[in-house]
Design goal:
This protein has about 350 residues and is an alpha/beta fold. Helices cover about 35% and strands about 20% of the residues. α6 (about 170-175) links the parallel β6 and β7 (about 190-195). The model has no long low-confidence stretch (mean pLDDT about 90).
Length: about 350
């Protein structure tokens, strides 16, 4: 099998060497070149046409975000952001994911064998995941131009009581194509997105600035109301429970399910118990099959379910797995999902 070719872009010679050694240790990956800034990288991309790029966020001459925007506009390809996941760097990483980066991983903060090996393992896995997205890089081209109206609308008597969404790789970009197009009195929205702990608070804060309603990082006991959304905190499991006051969040330290924490299946299964047929279940882009069984149980309970179509997915894994087992009632491209939500919730 042909190895995955990688271009490493970082202004630090030490980091370039470290990443090269880590990736070269995997026989399925080949570091084809390194670049010390975006201008050098531009020439290396033309020369080597790598399968995947790893890109530093902060660099001289041109920052990683600006270069990423140019890549996604002129020559879309899988990009992994290598970031320092603290403070401003985390916000920038979320911005990169919204622009189209496949993943963002943090540089190791500890120079210990265990920490470095953990980072190396994560890096190699992420490169392989990124390489699998290459076929769908033109997914958002020629999408229709939408006019948004975020004002309150008249709620349908048949509107779902809860919208439950699951996503993974590419989910940040995809959710940014859905949530900002919903009215400010939408039913409560709960999101299980595969994401590390340091990201979810920044993601919730950033996407709230695009929406007509607030998005929060879920916390224990948070009551769900119309005109709000919450995203499962990274490193936790999010369950929805019914209390006298209505629907609420239960945040636990339960073990990973399907190797994920948060797990879409955990959240969906809790929604089956708490809300059942009065749910609108949606599964979006992502690798693997987390959420497929939970979405099936939602559909079997009487809930309407939507799966993102292959052409608009970064990775057609989770929606495909759900479709294959009969969990998906309606297949839609990402740019039609907001309209479908509005039609089901409002007159």
């Amino acid at each position: 099998m042909k190895p995955i070719t990688v271009l490493i872009v970082d202004d630090s010679a030490f980091i370039r060497q470290m990443l090269t050694e880590m990736l070269s240790a995997d026989p399925e990956i080949k570091v084809i070149a390194t670049a010390f800034d975006p201008f050098d990288a531009r020439e290396k991309i033309k020369e080597f046409n790598p399968d995947v790029i790893t890109l530093d966020v902060e660099m001289p001459k041109m920052d990683g975000i600006t270069f990423l925007e140019k890549i996604m506009h002129l020559r879309p390809m899988p990009v992994i952001m290598i970031s320092t996941l603290t403070g401003k760097g985390t916000d920038v990483a979320i911005q990169a994911l919204q622009i189209g980066a496949v993943e963002c991983i943090g540089k190791p903060v500890e120079n210990t064998p265990v920490a470095l090996q953990s980072f190396s393992d994560e890096l190699c896995i992420t490169v392989k995941k990124a390489a699998a997205t290459r076929a769908n890089l033109n997914r958002t081209r020629n999408k229709p131009v939408r006019q948004t109206d975020k004002r309150s609308r008249t709620v349908s008597p048949k509107a779902p009581k809860l919208i439950a969404i699951g996503a993974s790789t590419g989910g940040v970009e995809t959710l940014s194509e859905i949530l900002p197009y919903l009215p400010n009195n939408c039913p409560p929205i709960v999101i299980a997105q595969h994401m590390p702990p340091v990201f979810t608070a920044s993601f919730a804060k950033r996407i709230s600035t695009l929406c007509s309603f607030p998005i929060y990082e879920a916390s224990e006991g948070m009551v769900l109301k119309s005109g709000m959304g919450c995203i499962a905190a990274g490193g936790t499991q999010l369950k929805i429970i019914r209390k006298a006051s209505g629907l609420a969040c239960r945040v636990t330290d339960d073990p990973p399910v399907n190797n994920h924490k948060p797990s879409v299946d955990v959240t969906f299964d809790s929604v089956v118990e708490a809300v059942g047929e009065n749910t609108l279940g949606i599964i979006l882009t992502g690798m693997g099959k987390d959420g497929a069984e939970g979405l099936l149980r939602l559909r079997q309970s009487g809930a309407h379910t939507i799966g993102q179509n292959e052409a608009s997915c970064v990775v057609y894994g989770m929606p495909h797995a759900a479709y294959n087992i009969g969990a998906v009632a309606e297949v839609l491209p990402v740019y039609n999902i907001a309209d479908a939500i509005v039609k089901r919730c409002f007159l």
